[in-house]
Amino acid sequence: MRRREFIALIGSTTAAWPLAARAQQAAMxxxxxxxxxxxxxxxSVLQAFHQGLGQVGYxxxxxxxxxxxxxxxxxxxLPALAAxxxxxxxxxxxxxxxxxxxxxxxxATTTIPIVCTLGGDPVETGLVASLNKPGxxxxxxxxxxxxMGPKRLDLARQLVPNATAVAMLINPRFPTASAEAREVQxxxxxxxxxxxxxxxxxxxxxxxxxTTIVEQxxxxxxxxxxxxxxxxxxxxxxLAARYTLPTIYFLREFVEAGGLMSYGPNIANGYRQAGVYxxxxxxxxxxxxxxxxxxxxxxxxxxxxTAKTLSLQIPPLLLALADEVIE
Length: 327
What we know:
five-stranded parallel β-sheet, Rossmann fold, 12 strands, alpha/beta, seven-stranded mixed β-sheet, 2 domains, 13 helices
């Protein structure tokens, strides 16, 4: 081979390498991550989502790309973030962090498959036709946290047996907040307990709500299901301690942060299943035929150190029923 031909061959081969690499990268599927939460406080559930993807053989950076969009509790940002992912032509949208994300994603596209994590009933919110056969382009998991409101009221009554007034804090911007509050109020009537409903969608409103709760002389507080309130768990736990207010939460993360008690499903399991579903869809599964996954176990967590700080005696029955007692 002549020297000039050899140089031409090497040059053409070298130029082809980046083209081949770009073609391989372009062929890699893209998951659009749309979350109502923030990156720092949602790190553990994101890890669970990655674990689910791994169960189906997908690993970020190796054979799948993930584009992240975080609303950080600002639900009004979600429609624009969803539109960005649609314009990016992602393969699947993982709409996580409760109802606001899948509602925004569903409004943005009827063709791109959507896998979501929810707090309540997706049929009631109009996201799917039925739990067993969702239809359309959306499926996912629900933690059924909304339906557990009456159970949390029952726990409050066991903690403070003579309670006549219990406060409930909700975020009015969360789609299922009113429905959850109604369920708690309905459950309270037979027991002649007054449910004092307060609302907050900002840090300053949370501070004001706690001042009102104390002024009303509520015996306990129930925190409503909401991603924004999860993000404010340190503030909520701190205020509950300051005002020595027995408070029942909906996720273990609150108890880990120093909260008194939580009752609900393992949220990481829901995110893990969402990761599995995303991987199955990448493999060709139709979201219309993937049933909404519901939790089968609900867990009670207690923080004994916090109970002592509140000078609260935990009933023996609750201690016996607790799935985990944090000392």
